[in-house]
Amino acid sequence: MSDISRQPSLFYHLGVRESFDMANNVILYHDTDADTALSLKASSGNYYFIPYIVTPCADYFCCESDAQRRASEYMQPNWDTLLGPLAYYKETLLNDIRRAREKYQGDELAKELARIKLRMDNTEVLTSDIVINLLLSYRDIQDYDAMVKLVETLEMLPTCDLADQHNIKFHYAFALN
């Protein structure tokens, strides 16, 4: 999954496996960027997600992104105080989307997602994991127009480059199809 050029194909194959009820899927990711790893982990659904790192001695270690994040926060504690409320808000949105997907279906899910989207008034809370979860939720209720509108709205935002990410492009192309 680390090779960005192969991600669309891999997501396609994961979707095919999912359609055949093949639930035991493992995603390996060379964790060089914590944000990308979190995005891929969020978009990987119920798959086993295994990030790994390579040491300068060419040793491979399986690692948890949370542990890396905690280590980087230890190195720069001021960022946590500055970005803490924003990170909390992002986590709350993400949890609300996940809860809505578990609790609602069909039109009820569409209404709940509309309420959640109204709370996203700041582009700083738009992260790839939130967008992917919204796209997956819209896909589940087959609201392809909402998927297209979400990605096209992201494309229009001048300070947002989320629409350029391969996993978001994949879902956008799926919705257009």
Automatic annotation (TrEMBL):
Pfam families (UniProt xref): MAP3K_TRAF_bd
GO molecular function terms listed in the Swiss-Prot or TrEMBL record: ATP binding; MAP kinase kinase kinase activity
Keywords, alphabetical: ATP-binding, Kinase, Nucleotide-binding, Serine/threonine-protein kinase, Transferase
Keyword 4Fe-4S found: no
GO BP annotation list: cellular response to stress
Ranges of residues in domain MAP3K TRAFs-binding: 10-177
Tree of life domain: Eukaryota
This protein's name: MAP3K TRAFs-binding domain-containing protein
Organism for this UniProt entry: Cervus elaphus hippelaphus
